[in-house]
Inverse folding.
């Protein structure tokens, strides 16, 4: 069966329905380079481990899994699409690129990143109207895009609306089934948006190379990174990685933050308990980018990742014939695992549809049970960065304001490719007692 149209419009229903009907391994067809290919869906924690665990890293390829969708718009030379397989002529490629990029994500830089994040968050919260419905989903998008664009490459404030528009067009064309540059088609708009984003990033790099401005800390780390063999990132590679990090750092973070707010609106007892935890934190310290441990907020974020992962499924290319649970998967096929199914798996989570942060109260999830940030030998490089941003934004919002969620226009979703709310998510704000 060819699932592409249904999966692209809303993957959640088909994944759950077909797994209930066919079991935890089933086959569909997908579009790939050269035509249609078999796609084998591997659902559940054991199958997640079979795809993601280091022991099986030579069985699967990221590049082969995502070349059709991501390579045309992001290029091939990004961390996300590199592999280490000698058989593909890519021995050590991912490891070498990872070593060049990881210094920009080190915890020792948090004291530089967090105040910058806090300043951006405060800028947007200061402008919010009181006593009238505010689209919190739109707010989250603006904040997260500003954070990632400013911290990654020093985007000027006046450029942000245009950059966001281009980036939205890029995302809408990412999983386009028709890769034709014909005016009016999503892929055409996405290609034009990519060209404009690349031109902008190249111009920013040129400014920094000429010494006309200081690059932000993140980009300075990347520009100065040097491998053991003296390898450095070219400007072309820097632009490609910046585009990829913009995608990962904005789209997924905005999706999950909106889901957190929606969960708080649907579960007032969770909202009240979270407010109680945050009540002992001075607002001034949070506005300065200082945030102490918040175990209940952490549990809320983990529970949101479980039920509402931004990306519902992920794909890998198969590099050799393999057999899983008696099921033959051929070289050249694709395999897919689903963070959405995994988080709702009744074999792993009791009462799986109930939103209950206490299931993660000072407790880590089982390995390969939660995959909102990937897992195994290649987890998301920016996971900690994203969690810092989410904790900071939520803590600042709830310390400054009381939020009355709703009324909502609808609960319709679309996927771009992350889960987004078609008609936004609204709340009415009043100034919290003691906040200025």
């Amino acid at each position: 069966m060819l699932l592409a149209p249904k999966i692209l419009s809303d993957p959640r229903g088909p994944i759950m329905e077909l797994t209930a009907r066919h079991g935890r391994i089933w086959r569909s067809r997908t579009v790939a380079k050269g035509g249609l290919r078999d796609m084998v869906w591997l659902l559940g924690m054991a199958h997640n481990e079979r795809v993601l665990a280091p022991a099986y890293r030579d069985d699967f390829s990221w590049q082969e899994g995502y070349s059709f969708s991501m390579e045309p718009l992001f290029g091939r030379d990004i961390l996300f699409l590199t592999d280490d397989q000698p058989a593909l002529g890519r021995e050590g490629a991912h490891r070498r690129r990872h070593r060049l990029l990881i210094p920009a994500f080190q915890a020792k830089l948090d004291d530089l990143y967090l105040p910058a994040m806090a300043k951006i968050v405060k800028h947007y919260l200061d402008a919010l109207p009181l006593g009238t419905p505010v689209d919190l989903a739109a707010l989250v998008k603006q904040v997260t895009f500003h954070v990632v664009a400013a911290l990654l490459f020093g985007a000027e404030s006046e450029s942000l609306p245009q950059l966001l528009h281009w980036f939205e067009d890029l995302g809408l064309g990412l999983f386009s089934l028709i890769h034709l540059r014909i005016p009016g088609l999503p892929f055409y708009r996405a290609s034009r948006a990519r060209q404009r984003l690349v031109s902008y990033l190249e111009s920013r790099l040129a400014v920094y190379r000429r010494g006309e401005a200081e690059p932000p800390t993140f980009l300075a780390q990347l520009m100065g990174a040097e491998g053991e063999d003296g390898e450095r990132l070219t400007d072309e590679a820097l632009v490609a990685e910046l585009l990829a990090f913009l995608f990962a750092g904005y789209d997924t973070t905005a999706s999950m933050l909106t889901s957190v707010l929606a969960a708080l609106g649907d579960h007032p007892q969770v909202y009240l308990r979270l407010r109680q935890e945050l009540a002992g934190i001075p607002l001034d310290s949070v506005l300065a980018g200082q945030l102490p441990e918040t175990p209940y907020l952490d549990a809320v974020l983990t529970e949101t990742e479980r039920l509402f992962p931004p990306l519902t499924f992920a794909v890998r290319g198969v590099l050799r014939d393999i057999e899983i649970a008696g099921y033959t998967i051929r070289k050249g096929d694709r395999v897919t695992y689903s963070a959405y199914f995994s988080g709702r798996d009744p074999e792993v989570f009791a009462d799986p549809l109930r939103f209950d942060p206490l299931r993660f109260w000072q407790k880590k999830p089982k390995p390969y049970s939660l995959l909102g940030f990937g897992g195994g030998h290649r987890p998301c490089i920016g996971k900690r960065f994203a969690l810092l941003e989410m904790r900071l934004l939520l803590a600042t919002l709830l310390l400054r304001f009381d939020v009355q969620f709703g009324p909502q226009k609808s609960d319709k979703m679309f996927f771009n490719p992350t889960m987004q709310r078609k008609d936004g998510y609204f709340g009415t704000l009043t100034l919290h007692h003691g906040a200025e």
Summary: Residues 348 and 369 are 7 Å apart (CA to CA). The mean pLDDT is 92.
